[in-house]
Amino acid sequence: MRMYLLYSFLTALGMLIAAPYFLVTGLRRGQTLSSLRQRFGWSYPPELSSSASRSIWIHAVSVGEVLAVVPLARRLKERFPAQRLVVSTTTATGQRLARERLPFAESVFYFPLDWRGPARRALRAAHPELIVIAETEIWPNFLREARREGVPVAFVNGRLSDRSFRGFARAHALTLGFLRSFLRRILANATIYLMQSEADADRLRDLGAPEERVVVAGNLKYDLGQPHESDLSRWLGGELLRSQRGPLIVAGSVLEGEEPPVLEAMSVIEAQWPAAMLALAPRKPDRFDACAMEIQKTGRTVVRRSGLSLDETSSPALGEPRSVFLLDSVGELGSLFGLADAVFIGGSLVHGGGHNILEPAVAGRVPIFGPSMENFKDVAARFLEAGAGVQVSNAEELAAAWQLLLLDPLRREQMGEAARNLVERYRGATQRVLEYLVSLLNSHDELAATARGGS
Fold it and tell me: Mean of the pLDDT values across residues 74-83?
């Protein structure tokens, strides 16, 4: 009890100190005061709080987690059509994408702050029969309140990187073991942990999760659907033909510090293919303006997605040599991979841990990424071993990798096919996870029926 009080005090103190920063950045990223009211549990969308029927609650932090749970959420809704499906996220971009990709959900709202009051109010509003948390977002007070309410909590697509594990190990040492004891109690509040790999499972067990509750179920991200054509991809495909631009290079999920090497590598490509076009997609919306400035520093013209209506037949600026298409939107990157001749996946040339390389692979494109792939270590290793991906360390190597694929269409096709086949080989996590969740729901119903009969 004292550890929970200390944790709540420290998180409250930290939030109080950081409140001005988070308020400013939150408003800049599109979060409104209504989202803050939701996080405190003071108000919720009417469709969430007005219904007394029980729900299946899926929590996905942001964009990557939302994309990963879409097939699972759809299967749950098909299996339990009478149940409400409600979805929470932490970020504004996650909210927008969840509303777009999960139109069958009865409600999309913000996850509560991890204090006793907000957690309780959220649980009472959502009235869940099962809570599904994507990846490994561990919130002590929320898990404790869910256990007190008798609601099973399943972590799906769980992962624990080497970096995170080492961080916990250092914290254990600094707190002389007190954190290990507290963490063991926290982890015991979840019902099951469905992890991506055996390595992830081993790390979680080492942190104190009950061994019998940790299961390897695979990576949901392998179950991505085929890349969907969008209004943007159709428009851009037509624009490439009209302006006679190409080849198209797509650099996605780029973080701060990666724009300069990407643009430097693109200069090498432009020297050999003067009509080449770069589509650059920052990972975070608060980098859109800064990224535009980085592009302009190189003397290039910036064509921003946000400035296009797509009704126009042509964009004269995009026809200019060395102009760069800046994808300053959320949820449209995946549709562009099918147009690309070569790609780069960001978060990997800087210490960002890497981002999802499976989206271009599903489209048959060869993922090229940097050395920092801690968040996708197993996935990256499989691609490199199969000759289905390329790892680079700097701008020079990135340019060379793009050149190699552009100069050798046969190699590009063979490696792209190997990438697509690798995704197909590891599909199936959604079905395995679904079976566990169905079992939990059925068990919960049986317990509830027994309790009613006994009363």
Answer: 94
